[in-house]
Specification:
single chain, alpha+beta, 4 strands, globular
């Protein structure tokens, strides 16, 4: 089961901080991050990669994006 971070409506750096907190909490597995700006999409994806997580997908969803990251 995936953990979900709903960062829609939040401006940077909040989506990144919420994502990093979730990564520290679960340490490995899969996280779905919901964002609603291009800037948040790019920053969250970059932060995940920097922390050693794999960006599995970035898909449009509604007026934003659904980012799926994972770590084994």
């Amino acid at each position: 089961m995936s953990n979900i971070v709903d960062a829609r409506g939040l401006s940077c750096p909040q989506p990144v901080l919420l994502t990093l907190n979730e990564m520290k909490k679960i340490n490995k597995g899969e996280i779905i991050i919901l964002v609603d700006t291009d800037t948040s999409k790019e920053n969250v994806s970059r932060a995940a990669t920097t922390q050693g997580w794999n960006v599995k997908s970035v898909e449009p969803e509604g007026i934003g994006y659904r980012i799926t990251v994972s770590k084994d």
